[in-house]
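Reopening this one. Same input as before:
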Amino acid sequence: MDRQPVLEGSLSKVEVTGFEARHYDRLMDVITAGTYPFFIRRAVRDMGIGPHDRILILGAGTGRNACLIARYLSDDGRILGLDIGQEMLEQALRRCRSQPNVSFEKQRVEQPLPYRDEFDKVLICFVLHGFTQEDRLRIIANAHRALRPGGEFLILDYDEFEPDRTTWPVGPVFKRVECPLASDFVRRDWRATLQAQGFARFQLHRYYFGYVRLLAAKKADT
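Same output, byte for byte:
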C-alpha cells in the first residue's frame, strides 16, 4: 500500500537546466565516483533489447542511454526519445546524429501522448521519482498505451527503501541531493502500482547495493 500523500508539483526537479544540464553526464560520473558508465552499460544489457525493437524513452536527457541502446538494434529497430529540456535535447541530437534510427522530440512525458500499441519497450530512467504521484500515474498510463500487447515497461530508478532508516551515509546524502519527491517515491510499492495499471510478469535487477534497480513489467496480452 502507498504510504505517502501526494506532494506539490512545485517541488519537482524534473527539468534540468543551466550548468547542471550542460555538464549532466560529467556530474553523474563524479557523483557515482566514476562508476556510472559501467553501471549504465550493465543496465542496458539487462534490458534485453532485441534487434528489431521499437523503443520509446520518456525523459531522454543527453541521449547517453539512447546511444547505448542503439548499439543493440538492427536497421529495423527504432528509438524515439522525449524530453522537455531544450539544452538536454540539443546534446542528445548532437550525440546521436550518426544514428539514423534514433530521433528525439520535445514533449512533456506526464501529458497525454499520441502513441498507441506501437512500441516494444518503453524506458524511463531516473525520471519518475521527480514527479508527483498524480503525474507518475499519468506517465505509467502513457507507457501502457504506447506499448503493444506483451510489450515491456522498463523503470530504471531508485529501489524501495526507507530513507530515515537506511545505513549512513546513504540516507543523509540521498535526502540532501534529491528532492522531497524522491523520498516519496522510494517509500511506495511500485509493483502493486504497476499491477493496478495493467502490468504484470515483473523482473528485477538491482545495482549499487540494492539502492537502484531496473524494474521490468509486461503489458498484458489482449
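So the earlier flakiness isn't reproducible anymore. For the record, Residues 1-11 have pLDDT under 50 and may be disordered.
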